[in-house]
Amino acid sequence: MSPLVKIRSERDQMSAVERRIADFILENAQLLRDYSSQQLANALGISQSSVVKFTQKLGFKGYPDLKYSVGEAIARADNGDATQVATQATAAFAESASASLWHCKSESEEETRHINTTETLQAVADALATAGANGKVFMIGLGDDDIYARSFALRLSLLGIPSVHNFDAPRMAASVSAAGAGDVLLVFSEHGNHPALCKIGRFFRERRGRLITVTRHTSNPLRALADLALLVSAHDDRPYIQPVLYQSALQHLLDGVFVQLCEGDEQRHVQLLANLERVQHMLEP
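Request: output the structure for the sequence above.
Response:
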């Protein structure tokens, strides 16, 4: 994992001083080799120990180790390393807005993959499969989040996992009153701070159900309630680009859970193929 990608993916969890260091490194990666830890500290008006602690928190032995790793990452990109194809493509088509957007999406998806481990995706898939077989899967998203809740509910149904989907908070509150142990509530909320969704999440937990949340990679009330949390990393200074990155990375994340479900059980796979064939037959003239 590139140290620059790691820094970007962890930025939202950093303190104000750590974010200043992170932003400086991300914006001046090519020049980092010319800075000692003391010079970097002087440039930012902070203590040298803050720089050292920052590098160690990221898993490096010290500032020289971080500087070397960043230099290696830049050198690999310059030499055409296969893992940096996205960076090269963007550089080659720097004047193209679509190429730039593609690169931003690739970065966002890579950061999102980094913060959601394979074990987490498997745990979410197992929880959904168990609830689908022995209980109920509830699903809610408000506003734009409902687009992904509705789509994912449909994909689960193709696998033979029915869900109780709703885009109205009061109705969902009534629905989860019938929840019990082993049931799952999947809540889509980009910022994770909607009061009604937090209340529904608490109520569901009281019913001994398992709460799975899908939010941004930030500290938020809904994520704090979750048994399992799927996190999306999407950052850009342009307000019209940031939601595009969020949607792209979120879809990629949900695709990962869907594939886990498809490949984790032969019966579900057979059910999917049968349902797809049935849908195709209905669409034929």
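The two ends are 50 Å apart (CA to CA).
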